[in-house]
Amino acid sequence: MDSAGYTTLTRMVGLNRELQAIANNIANVSTTGFRKEGLLFSEHISALGKDEDSLSMANANVRLTNNAQGPLTPTGGTYDLAIEGDGFFLVDTPDGQALTRNGAFTTNQQGELTTHDGYQLLDNGGAAIFIPPDAQTVAVAADGTLSADGVPLSQIGLYMPEDPTSMTRNNGVRFYTDGGIVPQEEAVILQGYVENSNVNAITEVARMIEVQHAYTLGQKFSEQEDERIKSVISTLGR
Fold it and tell me: Of 33, 56, 119, 233, whose Cβ has the fewest other Cβ atoms within 10 Å?
C-alpha cells in the first residue's frame, strides 16, 4: 500500500471509531446522568526520506467527555437527586470509588442509600449513608444535608477529580480516575429531580450523517487509488 492508501486508511479507522461513539450517544439519549462522548483527532507527520514527501497519518484514540449540564426533570421521588452545577456523586463499587451524575437512588434492605444496581452512595466523609427504617419524611437540602423527620443524619458529598482528563468511563454513567478527588462546594443538590442525558439527538444524527459521508468519500478514494495502481501495473506489464 502506498502513502495515500495508508493516510486514507488511518482516517477511515478514526471515522469508524467516531461513528461508534455517536451511536453510543444516541443509544443513551434517555439515560439518566449520561455524558456525551466524542473523539479527538490528531495528525502525525513524518518525513519518509531526505528528498521524499512527508507522510501524514490521522489518529483518533482520545475520547472526550462533554460535561455540559443536562436538563433537569422533576420526578417528586424522595431519593431522586440532581446536581445543579459542576460536581459528581461518589459511589462505592467493587472496582473502587466511582463518580457519577446519575442521581436516581434507592434504599437497600440494610437502609443504605444506593444506586439502582446496589452501589452505596457516600457522604462527604466517604462513608455510607443510612436511612432509619421508621423515618416518615426524608429531606435533602441544597448543600446535601440529609435529614429524617427533621433530624440531620448526614451530608451527601459532591466531588470533582483533580485532573478531569484522568477520568475513564465505565458502564455509561460511572467514571473512575487515577488521580485524586476534591470536594465540590459550589454546586447544589435538588431533591425530587434527576438530570437527563446531555445528548442532543438531532445534533448527533446530523453529525452521524456527516461522518458517514466523510467515510464514504474515503472509501471511494481508496477504491479509485486501488484501480489506479492496478492500471499502472497492467500498463507496465504490457
Answer: 233
User: What are the phi and psi torsion angles at 219 (to 5°)?
Assistant: -65, -45
Residue with cell 441544597: 142
pLDDT of residue 225: 67
Task: Give the chain's radius of gyration (CA, Å).
Answer: 25
pLDDT digits (tens, 9 = 90+) for 104-162: 999 999 999 999 999 999 999 999 999 999 999 999 999 999 999 999 999 999 999 99
Task: Give whole-number Cα distances, 152 to 56, 127, 132, 149, 165, in Å.
Answer: 61, 15, 12, 9, 36
CB-CB contact of 158 with 184 (8 Å): yes
Q: How many CB atoms lie within 10 A of CB 230?
A: 10
- Please determine, for residue 206, whether its predicted confidence score (pLDDT) is greater than 90: yes
First to last CA, the chain: 22
Q: Cβ-count burial of 80 within 10 angstroms (0-12 exposed, 13-18 middle, 19+ buried)?
A: buried
Q: Please report, as a single letter, which amino acid is at residue 25.
A: N
Instruction: Please give the C-alpha separations between residue 182 and each of 89, 97, 103, 133, in angstroms, as whole numbers.
Output: 12, 13, 19, 32
Number of residues written out for the chain: 238
Taking the whole predicted model, whether its pTM rises above 0.85 is answered as: no
Nine cell digits for residue 54: 512527508
Distance CA 71, CA 65 (A): 17
